[in-house]
Amino acid sequence: MEDIARQAGVSRSTVSRVINNHPHVSDDVRKRVLETIQSTSFYPNLTARALASQRSSMLGLLLPRNVSSFFADPFFPRLTQGIAQACNQFNNTLGLFLITSAEDEEKIFPRVSRKGMLDGILVQSGQYGDQLIERLMGSEMPLVVIGRPFYKEDVSYIDVDNVNAAYTAVSHLIRLGRRRIATIAGAANSSVSIDRLEGYRLALNEKSLPVDPSLMVEGDFTEVSGYYAMRNLMPAKPDAVFVAADLMAIGAMRAAHEAGLSIPDDIAFIGFDDLPLAAYSTPPLTTVRQPIYQLGFNAVEILLEQIKNGILPARRVILNTELIIRSSCGTTHRKGLNI
Amino acid sequence: MEDIARQAGVSRSTVSRVINNHPHVSDDVRKRVLETIQSTSFYPNLTARALASQRSSMLGLLLPRNVSSFFADPFFPRLTQGIAQACNQFNNTLGLFLITSAEDEEKIFPRVSRKGMLDGILVQSGQYGDQLIERLMGSEMPLVVIGRPFYKEDVSYIDVDNVNAAYTAVSHLIRLGRRRIATIAGAANSSVSIDRLEGYRLALNEKSLPVDPSLMVEGDFTEVSGYYAMRNLMPAKPDAVFVAADLMAIGAMRAAHEAGLSIPDDIAFIGFDDLPLAAYSTPPLTTVRQPIYQLGFNAVEILLEQIKNGILPARRVILNTELIIRSSCGTTHRKGLNI
DNA sequence: GTGAAAGCGCTAACAG
DNA sequence: CTGTTAGCGCTTTCAC
Q: Which residue of A has its CA nearest to B223?
């Protein structure tokens, strides 16, 4: 920078102003500086800039997950993409922190919670009992939670409307004439699972259908868990299943096929996510599309805005979902009523 | 740091020495400093340290991928995990850079290729024609490529032995009596696909079996592409298929089932990856297990070593794979020879 | 509109 | 073994 200041015949301050697009620089000087920057292929040292300006232009993404679920569920890669693209678009760098153990957390926490390395934090909503988010709130770092946190006083977060999504899906099954509607939920300690289960209950209650525990089983978002969950469900003879993830739905349909059930005649399925897979399963899966990429992208936007304007007031953003109707849920049930 | 130096009654240099575990500090002074650090819950500003020491302790992971493949293939999350855990273990921070367009690359390249923000770079081997790795080699940054690069002069890289893995898998099918062995390869412009295809050819050649183009089709690593690839393969009536990815193998088996073929009696399958899914497919999938997590973890180790000791000589590390035999490939073919 | 000067918070010779 | 003194490469008042 010294060099390019000399070459352009100005001071370092002026070069700095040009680089940072400050006003109050005469056009010709700006042009001259820009040219020498071009010719020198100079690029500012980001560390030095961060130290001087107290802004690193780096955002941290914390993923407090057990090892398996991180790579079982396509949700994370997709979310990460949205975040990464947003970071790039707004000229920020993304730091990735996978927290898979308590030791990880102890190592990572001080690194991310003090001013210095990061301007702000995105954290995936953890499991019930997880204290990470509260600890993070205790620090002065701007924070946006992805997914509804359990203790949500004064945190900004972004989530999809899981309750309503599940409600809509199950209501659809009811409308088609299904009456023994089961659900394969996700892990009970995540807010996602809780909310989807809540939507399931709401829809049943609304139509005065019983909420039967023998029709409710739990998986862990993997294909395999869906397969076994479905086998456990068999004795209860459901005529439809609302599954909290496409991957589990695929596994569940595999179990149904093996048992000789015909889909959707004997049993209907609705998944959640709308993975690319869903359109090509046998039969194609009716599912709830959630804007995962948008979730990540918007989270970055919110975080950046809070970094700029202060962390209060906490913002809450809920994105809508969409029911994508394919053939796994059938049309009106064969025994069914007209709509 | 100023404060804690004063509180401990020493100079800042001494505090620095203690923090960085330098020798030549008396035990009692060290202890005193450590105590005040504890009580103050002081944590050094990493940006300042990076600027002063010219080492950021931050590694960059560059993923030059088209959008879809990044989240279709569980390979990436798993790899990322290995890398993230290694970074954490060695007290480094991981920066994630997804490159999904030429503009992305132009924005990201200067950020990562100059000293300042990163100490070193991990880059996923790109596609044929991709110039990113060469550009990166032109910079002075330590670099480790994950996967065999196309132009491999003087780059350090780490890869699994894809040629040998495919050779072993196909040889196994031959040994079981299969004679019309097809393959569903990955995208032709990736080194992974090329190497696996090479191993396929080697095995056939060794036993003087013809390499029949009608038995060779291409997918893109997704389940769906495997499904359609298998349908394209049907007319050629293969009695076995070596599939370059488990996900595609699952899709291919789905197509085979739909066509009324029995696995492994009519047709055998071998996949690649050994995803958790593979053990639970119908039938359980014989597949090549590759140490993806290790790949990532070791890549970090190599990079860190090069950062410490200089980037020359380039290191090449090839990890071994393992054929996991399940029932999708059958035992000796029903028409078969004894082994 | 531009330059001079003072840091940002830490590390690293260099003395002692 | 410890303190003093310069910086690392940039941003940012504050004068002019």
A: A277
Chain A: give the shortest CA distance to residue B159, in Å.
20
Residue A191 and residue A156 in contact, taking contact as beta carbons nearer than 8 Å: no
d(CA B300, CA B302) in angstroms, rounded, equals 5
Give the distance, in angstroms, between residue A319 CA and nucleotide C16 C1': 66
pLDDT at position A224 is 87
Architecture of domain B58-160+292-320: 3-Layer(aba) Sandwich (3.40)
For chain A, what are the domain ranges?
Answer: 2-44, 58-160+292-320, 162-290+323-338
The answer to whether B14 CB sits below 7 Å from nucleic acid chain D is: yes
Q: What is the pLDDT of residue A147?
A: 92
pLDDT digits 0-9 by tens, A207-264: 999 999 999 999 988 888 999 999 999 999 999 999 999 999 999 999 999 899 998 9
* A52 CB and strand C closer than 7 A: yes
The reply to whether residue A93 touches residue B117, judged by beta carbons under 8 angstroms, is yes
Q: How far is residue B227's CA from residue B242's CA, in Å, rounded to a whole number?
A: 14
Give residue numbers, 38 to 67 of B, with CB < 7 Å from strand C.
Answer: 44-45, 48-49, 51-53
Average pLDDT over residues A97-105: 91
Q: Is the CB of B33 under 7 A from strand D?
A: no
Chain A residues 19-58 within an 8 A CB cutoff of chain B: 43-48, 50-51, 56, 58
Q: Tell me whether the CATH fold assigned to A58-160+292-320 matches the one assigned to A162-290+323-338.
A: yes
Over B47-110, what HEC string results?
HHHHHHHCCCCEEEEEEECCHHHHHHCCHHHHHHHHHHHHHHHCCCEEEEEEECCHHHHHHHHH
Is A4:A15 a contact under the CB 8 Å cutoff? yes
How far apart, in whole angstroms, are the C-alpha atoms of residue A155 and residue A166?
25
- The segment with the largest mean pLDDT, out of A128-132, B4-8, B238-242, is B238-242
pLDDT digits (tens, 9 = 90+) for B199-248: 999 999 999 999 999 999 999 888 889 999 999 999 999 999 999 999 99
CATH number belonging to domain B162-290+323-338 = 3.40.50.2300
Q: In a mutagenesis test of the B interface, which of A55, A98, A273 is the best target, namely the one with the most B β-carbons within 10 Å? A: A98
For the ranges A4-13, A80-89, B80-89, the lowest mean pLDDT is seen at A4-13
Whether nucleic acid strand C comes within 7 Å of the CB of A107, the answer is no
Return the bridge partners of A94, or none. Answer: A59, B96
Per-residue pLDDT tens digits for B309-339: 887 789 999 999 999 999 999 886 554 443 3
Rounded Cα–Cα distance for residues A14 and A36 (Å) = 13
A10 residue type, one letter: V
Give the strand pairing for A58-64 and A93-99. parallel
Question: Of the given ranges (A124-133, A217-226, B114-123, B180-189), which has the lowest mean pLDDT?
Answer: A124-133
- The answer on pLDDT for A111 being more than 80 is yes
The pLDDT score that the predictor gives to residue A24 is 82
A278-288 residue pLDDT tens: 888 888 999 99
Q: What does DSSP say about strands B286-289 and B322-324: parallel, antiparallel, or unpaired?
A: antiparallel
Q: Which residues pair with B122 in a beta bridge?
A: B61, B144
Mention the CATH class of domain B2-44.
mainly alpha
